[in-house]
Amino acid sequence: MRQKGFTTVELLVVIAIISIIITVGILNLPKLYKMYKFNEYTYAIENLVKLAKVKAMELTENVAICVDSDNRSIKIVNLGTSRSIRCGINDSCSGSDRPCVITKLEIPETFINIDGWNTGFDPRGFVLRPGRVCVDKEEEQYFKICISRFGAIRIDRGEGACGNC
Predict the structure, then answer these.
(1) Is the dihedral of CA 4, 7, 10, 16 positive or negative?
(2) Sequence-separated (6 or more) residues with CB below 8 Å from residue 136
(3) What structural domains and CATH numbers belong to the chain?
(4) For residue 97, what pLDDT is reported?
(5) At a CB cut-off of 8 Å and minimum separation 6, what does 64 contact?
(6) Fewer beta carbons within 10 angstroms: which end of the chain, N or C?
(7) What's the Cα-to-Cα distance from 55 to each of 65, 122, 124, 152, rounded to whole Å?
(8) Are the beta carbons of 24 and 89 closer than 8 angstroms?
(9) pLDDT at res. 165
C-alpha cells in the first residue's frame, strides 16, 4: 500500500528553491529602488518644466526654472514682468513681492545627481534664455530636458552622464 504525502527530500528541495528565489530578490531590491526613484524624479521634472511654460502663459508673466545643484532642488519662480532670471529667492508668493516661488521639487536621494542651466518662459511660451535640466543616476543613466529659444521642449534619455543639448 502506497502512502500519500511528500518525502523529506522533496520538501527540502522545495525549501531550497524558495530560498534561492528569495535571496536573488533581496539582492536586487536596492537596484530596483534606485531605478524606481530615478524614474519618479524624471517624470516629476518633466511635469515641472511643462508646468512652468503653462504657468507663464496662464499668469501672463515671466516664469523661471531654477536648477540648484548644491541644494538638489528645482524651483519654478514667478518673475513678474522682469526678464532677468533671478533664482536666489526662497520666499513664497505673498502680496506683491516679486519674484516668488510657485513650486519646488527637492531630491534628497544622494545617488541621483541634478544639473542644468537656469531658464524661463515668457507669457507667449517662448524662452527667456535657452537651458536644460538633467538628472542622472550615478552616471549610469541620464534624463535630460533641453529647452530651445522658441519654447520647444526636447527630452533625451540614455546611458552615462549628462551632456550638453
Answers:
(1) positive
(2) 112, 113, 115, 142, 143, 160, 161, 162
(3) 8-159 (3.55.40.10)
(4) 54
(5) 52, 76, 77, 79, 85, 86, 87, 99, 118, 119, 120, 128
(6) N
(7) 11, 10, 11, 16
(8) no
(9) 79
